[in-house]
Protein backbone atom coordinates (compact mmCIF):
# COMPACT_ATOMS: atom_id res chain seq x y z
CA UNK A 1 0.00 0.00 0.00
CA UNK A 2 1.40 3.40 -1.02
CA UNK A 3 1.73 5.94 1.79
CA UNK A 4 1.13 9.66 1.60
CA UNK A 5 4.83 10.50 1.34
CA UNK A 6 5.45 8.17 -1.59
CA UNK A 7 2.21 9.23 -3.26
CA UNK A 8 3.14 12.90 -3.01
CA UNK A 9 6.55 12.26 -4.56
CA UNK A 10 5.20 10.23 -7.49
CA UNK A 11 1.84 11.93 -8.05
CA UNK A 12 1.16 12.94 -11.63
CA UNK A 13 4.51 11.87 -13.06
CA UNK A 14 4.43 10.34 -16.56
CA UNK A 15 5.67 6.84 -17.22
CA UNK A 16 9.47 6.71 -17.12
CA UNK A 17 11.21 6.97 -20.47
CA UNK A 18 14.89 6.56 -21.23
CA UNK A 19 16.81 9.84 -21.30
CA UNK A 20 13.74 11.90 -20.33
CA UNK A 21 13.29 13.88 -17.08
CA UNK A 22 11.05 12.49 -14.37
CA UNK A 23 8.97 15.69 -14.44
CA UNK A 24 8.86 17.30 -17.90
CA UNK A 25 9.47 21.03 -18.00
CA UNK A 26 6.72 23.62 -18.50
CA UNK A 27 5.14 23.85 -21.93
CA UNK A 28 4.79 27.45 -23.14
CA UNK A 29 2.37 27.35 -26.04
CA UNK A 30 -0.64 29.38 -27.10
CA UNK A 31 -1.55 26.99 -29.92
CA UNK A 32 -0.50 23.57 -31.17
CA UNK A 33 0.02 21.93 -34.55
CA UNK A 34 -3.23 20.27 -35.55
CA UNK A 35 -3.32 17.74 -38.42
CA UNK A 36 -6.76 18.60 -39.75
CA UNK A 37 -9.71 19.57 -37.58
CA UNK A 38 -9.20 21.44 -34.31
CA UNK A 39 -9.71 18.37 -32.16
CA UNK A 40 -7.53 16.49 -29.74
CA UNK A 41 -6.19 16.75 -26.21
CA UNK A 42 -4.33 20.03 -26.88
CA UNK A 43 -5.71 22.62 -29.26
CA UNK A 44 -5.48 26.08 -27.71
CA UNK A 45 -3.66 27.41 -24.66
CA UNK A 46 -6.79 28.62 -22.85
CA UNK A 47 -8.35 25.15 -22.99
CA UNK A 48 -5.60 22.74 -22.04
CA UNK A 49 -1.87 22.51 -21.48
CA UNK A 50 0.36 19.45 -20.91
CA UNK A 51 1.82 21.04 -17.76
CA UNK A 52 -1.68 21.47 -16.32
CA UNK A 53 -2.44 17.85 -17.15
CA UNK A 54 0.42 16.54 -14.99
CA UNK A 55 -0.46 18.85 -12.09
CA UNK A 56 -4.18 18.11 -12.20
CA UNK A 57 -3.52 14.40 -12.29
CA UNK A 58 -1.17 14.73 -9.30
CA UNK A 59 -3.68 16.67 -7.19
CA UNK A 60 -6.43 14.22 -8.15
CA UNK A 61 -4.31 11.33 -6.89
CA UNK A 62 -3.77 13.10 -3.56
CA UNK A 63 -7.42 14.12 -3.11
CA UNK A 64 -8.79 10.72 -4.06
CA UNK A 65 -6.22 7.89 -3.84
CA UNK A 66 -8.88 5.17 -3.98
CA UNK A 67 -11.00 6.58 -6.79
CA UNK A 68 -10.90 8.69 -9.91
CA UNK A 69 -11.06 12.41 -9.31
CA UNK A 70 -11.30 15.14 -11.94
CA UNK A 71 -9.20 18.17 -11.03
CA UNK A 72 -9.29 21.61 -12.62
CA UNK A 73 -6.42 24.01 -11.86
CA UNK A 74 -6.94 27.76 -11.60
CA UNK A 75 -4.86 30.92 -11.41
CA UNK A 76 -5.66 31.41 -7.71
CA UNK A 77 -7.70 30.02 -4.86
CA UNK A 78 -10.36 32.70 -5.28
CA UNK A 79 -10.67 31.79 -8.95
CA UNK A 80 -11.38 28.20 -7.91
CA UNK A 81 -13.93 29.30 -5.29
CA UNK A 82 -15.68 31.56 -7.78
CA UNK A 83 -15.77 28.81 -10.40
CA UNK A 84 -17.68 26.43 -8.13
CA UNK A 85 -20.13 29.06 -6.87
CA UNK A 86 -20.92 30.73 -10.17
CA UNK A 87 -21.00 27.57 -12.25
CA UNK A 88 -23.51 25.88 -9.94
CA UNK A 89 -25.77 28.73 -8.77
CA UNK A 90 -28.46 30.58 -10.67
CA UNK A 91 -30.75 33.46 -9.84
CA UNK A 92 -33.26 32.32 -7.23
CA UNK A 93 -31.00 29.66 -5.75
CA UNK A 94 -29.84 29.69 -2.12
CA UNK A 95 -26.31 29.02 -0.87
CA UNK A 96 -25.04 28.51 2.69
CA UNK A 97 -21.66 30.09 3.47
CA UNK A 98 -19.64 30.08 6.71
CA UNK A 99 -19.95 33.33 8.65
CA UNK A 100 -16.39 32.90 9.96
CA UNK A 101 -14.69 31.96 6.70
CA UNK A 102 -12.02 33.46 4.51
CA UNK A 103 -11.84 37.25 4.46
CA UNK A 104 -13.01 37.63 0.84
CA UNK A 105 -16.22 35.64 1.31
CA UNK A 106 -18.18 38.82 2.22
CA UNK A 107 -17.19 40.28 -1.15
CA UNK A 108 -18.31 37.06 -2.83
CA UNK A 109 -21.58 37.27 -0.93
CA UNK A 110 -22.22 40.77 -2.23
CA UNK A 111 -21.61 39.61 -5.80
CA UNK A 112 -23.88 36.60 -5.42
CA UNK A 113 -26.71 38.70 -4.01
CA UNK A 114 -26.38 41.14 -6.90
CA UNK A 115 -27.21 38.21 -9.20
CA UNK A 116 -30.37 37.36 -7.27
CA UNK A 117 -28.88 34.48 -5.27
CA UNK A 118 -29.92 34.14 -1.62
CA UNK A 119 -26.94 33.87 0.71
CA UNK A 120 -27.27 32.40 4.21
CA UNK A 121 -24.47 32.28 6.74
CA UNK A 122 -23.77 30.34 9.93
CA UNK A 123 -20.66 29.60 12.01
CA UNK A 124 -18.50 26.58 11.31
CA UNK A 125 -18.45 25.28 14.89
CA UNK A 126 -21.08 22.85 16.20
CA UNK A 127 -22.31 22.11 12.64
CA UNK A 128 -24.42 25.28 12.85
CA UNK A 129 -24.86 25.41 9.08
CA UNK A 130 -27.42 22.63 9.35
CA UNK A 131 -29.89 25.12 10.81
CA UNK A 132 -30.05 27.17 7.58
CA UNK A 133 -29.75 24.37 5.04
CA UNK A 134 -33.38 23.85 4.01
CA UNK A 135 -33.96 24.63 0.33
CA UNK A 136 -30.32 25.49 -0.40
CA UNK A 137 -28.71 24.53 -3.68
CA UNK A 138 -25.13 24.50 -2.34
CA UNK A 139 -23.48 24.16 1.08
CA UNK A 140 -20.02 25.70 1.40
CA UNK A 141 -17.88 24.35 4.26
CA UNK A 142 -14.54 25.70 5.45
CA UNK A 143 -12.86 23.44 7.99
CA UNK A 144 -10.61 24.29 9.70
CA UNK A 145 -11.96 27.80 9.27
CA UNK A 146 -9.70 30.75 8.56
CA UNK A 147 -8.76 32.48 10.81
CA UNK A 148 -10.67 30.96 13.77
CA UNK A 149 -9.64 27.32 13.13
CA UNK A 150 -13.08 26.00 14.06
CA UNK A 151 -13.91 22.55 12.70
CA UNK A 152 -17.07 20.64 11.87
CA UNK A 153 -18.22 17.15 10.95
CA UNK A 154 -17.92 17.12 7.16
CA UNK A 155 -19.54 13.71 6.68
CA UNK A 156 -22.55 14.60 8.82
CA UNK A 157 -23.07 17.89 7.00
CA UNK A 158 -22.60 16.28 3.59
CA UNK A 159 -25.05 13.45 4.27
CA UNK A 160 -27.70 15.86 5.53
CA UNK A 161 -27.15 18.26 2.62
CA UNK A 162 -27.53 15.48 0.07
CA UNK A 163 -30.67 14.31 1.79
CA UNK A 164 -32.08 17.81 1.34
CA UNK A 165 -30.95 18.03 -2.29
CA UNK A 166 -27.91 20.30 -1.92
CA UNK A 167 -24.41 19.99 -3.29
CA UNK A 168 -21.46 20.22 -0.88
CA UNK A 169 -18.15 22.01 -1.42
CA UNK A 170 -15.34 21.99 1.15
CA UNK A 171 -12.52 24.53 1.29
CA UNK A 172 -9.58 22.27 2.10
CA UNK A 173 -6.85 24.93 2.02
CA UNK A 174 -5.63 24.66 5.62
CA UNK A 175 -5.94 20.91 5.98
CA UNK A 176 -4.46 19.91 2.56
CA UNK A 177 -5.23 16.48 1.05
CA UNK A 178 -2.91 14.91 3.62
CA UNK A 179 -4.91 16.32 6.53
CA UNK A 180 -8.38 15.42 5.29
CA UNK A 181 -9.96 14.27 2.04
CA UNK A 182 -13.40 15.83 1.58
CA UNK A 183 -14.29 13.58 -1.36
CA UNK A 184 -13.92 10.54 0.91
CA UNK A 185 -16.28 12.29 3.35
CA UNK A 186 -19.04 12.46 0.70
CA UNK A 187 -18.40 16.06 -0.41
CA UNK A 188 -19.04 16.87 -4.08
CA UNK A 189 -16.18 19.38 -4.40
CA UNK A 190 -12.82 19.75 -2.72
CA UNK A 191 -11.57 23.28 -3.30
CA UNK A 192 -8.28 24.77 -2.15
CA UNK A 193 -5.76 27.52 -2.65
CA UNK A 194 -2.45 26.01 -3.70
CA UNK A 195 -0.73 29.27 -2.83
CA UNK A 196 -0.28 28.33 0.80
CA UNK A 197 0.43 24.92 2.28
CA UNK A 198 0.10 22.87 -0.91
CA UNK A 199 3.06 24.46 -2.70
CA UNK A 200 4.70 25.88 0.43
CA UNK A 201 7.40 28.12 -1.05
CA UNK A 202 5.45 31.36 -1.33
CA UNK A 203 6.32 31.79 -5.02
CA UNK A 204 3.12 30.58 -6.70
CA UNK A 205 -0.49 31.74 -6.93
CA UNK A 206 -2.69 28.74 -7.66
CA UNK A 207 -6.04 27.12 -6.91
CA UNK A 208 -7.86 23.94 -7.82
CA UNK A 209 -11.19 22.14 -7.74
CA UNK A 210 -11.46 18.35 -7.45
CA UNK A 211 -14.60 16.27 -7.89
CA UNK A 212 -15.52 12.69 -8.73
CA UNK A 213 -18.46 13.76 -10.88
CA UNK A 214 -17.41 14.30 -14.51
CA UNK A 215 -20.40 16.53 -15.24
CA UNK A 216 -19.57 18.84 -12.33
CA UNK A 217 -15.94 18.96 -13.47
CA UNK A 218 -17.02 19.89 -17.01
CA UNK A 219 -19.12 22.78 -15.68
CA UNK A 220 -16.19 24.10 -13.63
CA UNK A 221 -13.80 23.67 -16.55
CA UNK A 222 -16.17 25.54 -18.87
CA UNK A 223 -16.29 28.42 -16.36
CA UNK A 224 -12.48 28.55 -16.31
CA UNK A 225 -12.40 28.71 -20.10
CA UNK A 226 -15.10 31.39 -20.25
CA UNK A 227 -13.49 33.79 -17.77
CA UNK A 228 -9.90 32.86 -18.64
CA UNK A 229 -8.86 32.07 -15.05
CA UNK A 230 -6.10 29.72 -16.20
CA UNK A 231 -2.82 29.07 -14.38
CA UNK A 232 0.46 29.82 -16.11
CA UNK A 233 2.60 26.88 -17.25
CA UNK A 234 5.49 27.98 -15.06
CA UNK A 235 3.30 28.29 -11.97
CA UNK A 236 1.82 24.86 -12.68
CA UNK A 237 5.26 23.30 -13.02
CA UNK A 238 6.51 24.93 -9.82
CA UNK A 239 3.45 23.70 -7.95
CA UNK A 240 3.95 20.15 -9.21
CA UNK A 241 7.61 20.26 -8.24
CA UNK A 242 6.64 21.39 -4.73
CA UNK A 243 4.26 18.47 -4.15
CA UNK A 244 7.22 16.14 -3.63
CA UNK A 245 7.91 17.74 -0.23
CA UNK A 246 4.27 18.12 0.85
CA UNK A 247 4.29 15.22 3.31
CA UNK A 248 7.54 16.42 4.87
CA UNK A 249 6.30 19.99 5.23
CA UNK A 250 2.93 19.01 6.68
CA UNK A 251 4.57 16.75 9.24
CA UNK A 252 7.14 19.35 10.31
CA UNK A 253 4.70 22.24 10.41
CA UNK A 254 2.11 20.27 12.33
CA UNK A 255 4.60 19.10 14.94
CA UNK A 256 6.11 22.56 15.34
CA UNK A 257 2.80 24.38 15.64
CA UNK A 258 1.48 21.87 18.15
CA UNK A 259 4.65 22.08 20.26
CA UNK A 260 4.49 25.86 20.38
CA UNK A 261 0.74 25.88 21.10
CA UNK A 262 1.22 23.42 23.95
CA UNK A 263 4.03 25.54 25.40
CA UNK A 264 1.90 28.70 25.30
CA UNK A 265 -1.23 27.04 26.65
CA UNK A 266 -0.28 27.57 30.31
CA UNK A 267 1.20 31.05 30.01
CA UNK A 268 -0.81 33.65 31.97
CA UNK A 269 -0.27 36.45 29.45
CA UNK A 270 -1.80 34.47 26.57
CA UNK A 271 -5.57 34.19 26.32
CA UNK A 272 -7.82 32.53 23.79
CA UNK A 273 -5.24 30.13 22.35
CA UNK A 274 -6.76 28.17 19.47
CA UNK A 275 -5.31 25.02 17.92
CA UNK A 276 -7.36 22.02 16.75
CA UNK A 277 -4.73 19.64 18.09
CA UNK A 278 -4.96 20.72 21.71
CA UNK A 279 -7.33 18.90 24.10
CA UNK A 280 -9.09 22.23 24.71
CA UNK A 281 -8.88 23.31 21.08
CA UNK A 282 -11.82 24.49 18.95
CA UNK A 283 -14.35 21.78 18.19
CA UNK A 284 -14.76 18.22 19.49
CA UNK A 285 -11.53 16.20 19.23
CA UNK A 286 -13.20 13.53 17.12
CA UNK A 287 -13.89 16.07 14.38
CA UNK A 288 -10.42 17.54 14.16
CA UNK A 289 -8.54 16.28 11.11
CA UNK A 290 -5.12 14.84 12.00
CA UNK A 291 -2.19 17.09 11.04
CA UNK A 292 -4.74 19.54 9.68
CA UNK A 293 -3.40 22.75 11.13
CA UNK A 294 0.02 24.27 10.95
CA UNK A 295 -1.45 27.57 12.11
CA UNK A 296 -2.98 28.66 15.37
CA UNK A 297 -4.35 31.93 16.72
CA UNK A 298 -3.67 33.87 19.88
CA UNK A 299 -7.07 35.50 20.27
CA UNK A 300 -7.64 38.23 22.81
CA UNK A 301 -5.62 40.87 24.61
CA UNK A 302 -2.01 40.01 25.32
CA UNK A 303 -0.39 41.68 28.33
CA UNK A 304 2.32 40.88 30.87
CA UNK A 305 1.12 39.93 34.36
CA UNK A 306 0.62 42.95 36.60
CA UNK A 307 0.51 45.54 33.83
CA UNK A 308 -3.21 45.43 33.14
CA UNK A 309 -5.16 44.70 29.95
CA UNK A 310 -3.60 47.39 27.81
CA UNK A 311 -3.24 45.32 24.64
CA UNK A 312 0.55 45.11 24.85
CA UNK A 313 2.72 42.37 23.49
CA UNK A 314 4.35 40.31 26.28
CA UNK A 315 7.76 41.69 27.13
CA UNK A 316 7.04 45.24 25.94
CA UNK A 317 6.20 47.85 28.58
CA UNK A 318 4.44 50.19 26.20
CA UNK A 319 1.19 49.77 24.30
CA UNK A 320 1.34 49.86 20.53
CA UNK A 321 2.91 53.10 19.40
CA UNK A 322 1.68 55.26 16.60
CA UNK A 323 2.83 54.22 13.19
CA UNK A 324 4.75 57.44 12.39
CA UNK A 325 6.76 57.07 15.62
CA UNK A 326 7.65 53.49 14.79
CA UNK A 327 8.74 54.48 11.30
CA UNK A 328 10.95 57.24 12.68
CA UNK A 329 12.63 54.86 15.12
CA UNK A 330 13.04 52.13 12.53
CA UNK A 331 15.32 54.39 10.52
CA UNK A 332 17.76 54.85 13.39
CA UNK A 333 18.13 51.46 14.99
CA UNK A 334 18.80 47.88 14.11
CA UNK A 335 15.93 45.46 14.67
CA UNK A 336 15.81 41.67 14.89
CA UNK A 337 15.09 39.66 11.79
CA UNK A 338 11.30 39.35 11.45
CA UNK A 339 9.63 36.10 12.40
CA UNK A 340 8.05 35.83 8.96
CA UNK A 341 8.64 37.52 5.65
CA UNK A 342 4.94 37.55 4.84
CA UNK A 343 1.85 38.03 6.92
CA UNK A 344 -0.14 35.20 5.35
CA UNK A 345 0.65 31.48 5.66
CA UNK A 346 2.91 30.66 2.75
CA UNK A 347 4.87 27.60 3.83
CA UNK A 348 8.52 27.54 4.79
CA UNK A 349 8.74 30.90 6.61
CA UNK A 350 7.46 31.24 10.19
CA UNK A 351 5.00 34.05 10.71
CA UNK A 352 3.65 36.36 13.38
CA UNK A 353 0.87 38.74 12.37
CA UNK A 354 -2.40 40.36 13.43
CA UNK A 355 -6.00 39.84 12.37
CA UNK A 356 -8.92 42.20 12.77
CA UNK A 357 -11.53 39.46 12.61
CA UNK A 358 -13.36 37.21 10.14
CA UNK A 359 -14.41 38.83 6.92
CA UNK A 360 -12.16 41.87 7.36
CA UNK A 361 -8.69 42.77 6.25
CA UNK A 362 -5.95 41.39 8.50
CA UNK A 363 -4.12 44.72 8.53
CA UNK A 364 -4.72 45.14 12.23
CA UNK A 365 -3.49 48.22 14.03
CA UNK A 366 -1.87 48.38 17.47
CA UNK A 367 -3.86 49.86 20.34
CA UNK A 368 -3.87 53.64 20.36
CA UNK A 369 -2.60 55.65 23.29
CA UNK A 370 -5.38 57.07 25.43
CA UNK A 371 -8.13 54.93 23.90
CA UNK A 372 -8.17 51.99 26.31
CA UNK A 373 -7.60 48.32 25.49
CA UNK A 374 -8.26 46.89 22.07
CA UNK A 375 -8.67 43.17 21.50
CA UNK A 376 -6.26 41.78 18.95
CA UNK A 377 -5.87 38.40 17.29
CA UNK A 378 -2.28 37.30 16.76
CA UNK A 379 -1.46 34.49 14.38
CA UNK A 380 1.78 32.58 14.83
CA UNK A 381 2.40 30.18 12.00
CA UNK A 382 5.13 27.56 12.10
CA UNK A 383 7.63 27.13 9.25
CA UNK A 384 9.59 24.06 8.26
CA UNK A 385 11.93 24.03 11.26
CA UNK A 386 12.11 21.16 13.68
CA UNK A 387 10.64 21.93 17.11
CA UNK A 388 14.00 22.33 18.96
CA UNK A 389 15.24 24.88 16.43
CA UNK A 390 12.77 27.55 17.60
CA UNK A 391 12.08 27.06 21.32
CA UNK A 392 9.48 29.24 22.99
CA UNK A 393 11.47 32.28 24.14
CA UNK A 394 11.11 33.73 27.62
CA UNK A 395 8.05 35.99 27.89
CA UNK A 396 7.03 34.99 24.37
CA UNK A 397 9.42 37.43 22.67
CA UNK A 398 12.44 36.73 20.47
CA UNK A 399 15.71 35.72 22.05
CA UNK A 400 17.36 38.54 23.99
CA UNK A 401 20.79 39.78 22.90
CA UNK A 402 23.91 39.18 24.91
CA UNK A 403 24.12 41.93 27.61
CA UNK A 404 26.42 44.79 26.68
CA UNK A 405 26.42 43.95 22.98
CA UNK A 406 23.01 45.32 21.98
CA UNK A 407 22.98 47.28 18.73
CA UNK A 408 26.58 46.22 18.03
CA UNK A 409 25.79 43.96 15.08
CA UNK A 410 25.24 40.23 14.56
CA UNK A 411 27.91 39.34 17.11
CA UNK A 412 25.51 40.35 19.87
CA UNK A 413 23.29 37.35 19.14
CA UNK A 414 24.07 33.64 19.44
CA UNK A 415 24.92 32.01 16.07
CA UNK A 416 21.73 29.92 16.19
CA UNK A 417 19.44 32.86 16.95
CA UNK A 418 16.49 33.26 14.56
CA UNK A 419 16.52 37.00 15.32
CA UNK A 420 20.01 38.14 14.30
CA UNK A 421 20.04 41.93 13.91
CA UNK A 422 19.37 43.29 10.50
CA UNK A 423 18.59 46.84 9.42
CA UNK A 424 15.11 46.87 8.00
CA UNK A 425 13.24 49.53 6.07
CA UNK A 426 10.51 51.58 7.67
CA UNK A 427 7.78 49.63 5.90
CA UNK A 428 8.72 46.35 7.56
CA UNK A 429 8.95 47.48 11.15
CA UNK A 430 5.30 46.97 11.99
CA UNK A 431 5.67 43.21 11.75
CA UNK A 432 8.77 42.86 13.94
CA UNK A 433 8.81 41.88 17.59
CA UNK A 434 11.70 43.78 19.12
CA UNK A 435 13.51 42.88 22.33
CA UNK A 436 12.74 45.27 25.17
CA UNK A 437 16.05 47.08 25.79
CA UNK A 438 15.98 50.45 27.61
CA UNK A 439 17.29 53.40 25.66
CA UNK A 440 19.71 54.24 28.50
CA UNK A 441 21.54 50.97 27.79
CA UNK A 442 22.05 51.98 24.18
CA UNK A 443 23.52 55.36 25.23
CA UNK A 444 25.89 53.83 27.76
CA UNK A 445 27.14 51.36 25.16
CA UNK A 446 27.76 54.13 22.66
CA UNK A 447 29.61 56.17 25.26
CA UNK A 448 31.84 53.23 26.11
Describe the 3D structure:
With 448 residues, the protein is of the alpha/beta class. It folds into two domains: 4-245, Type I PLP-dependent aspartate aminotransferase-like (Major domain) (Aspartate Aminotransferase, domain 2); 301-447, no CATH class. The chain is built from twelve helices and 13 strands. Strands 1-7-6-5-4-2-3 form a seven-stranded mixed sheet, sandwiched between helices. A four-stranded antiparallel sheet has the order 8-9-12-11, with helices on one face. Strands 10-13 form a two-stranded antiparallel ribbon. Belongs to the trans-sulfuration enzymes family. It comes from Streptomyces nigrescens. InterPro entries: Cys/Met-Metab_PyrdxlP-dep_enz (IPR000277), PyrdxlP-dep_Trfase (IPR015424), PyrdxlP-dep_Trfase_major (IPR015421), PyrdxlP-dep_Trfase_small (IPR015422). Residues 271-372, 390-422 are annotated as: Disordered.
Task: Kindly summarize this structure in a few lines.
The protein is an alpha/beta fold and 448 residues long. It has helices spanning 4-10, 50-63, 77-88, 105-114, 154-163, 176-179, 194-198, 214-227, 233-242, 246-264, 323-330, 439-447; strands at residues 70-74, 94-98, 118-122, 138-142, 167-171, 189-193, 207-211, 273-274, 295-300, 335-336, 351-355, 376-381, 421-422.
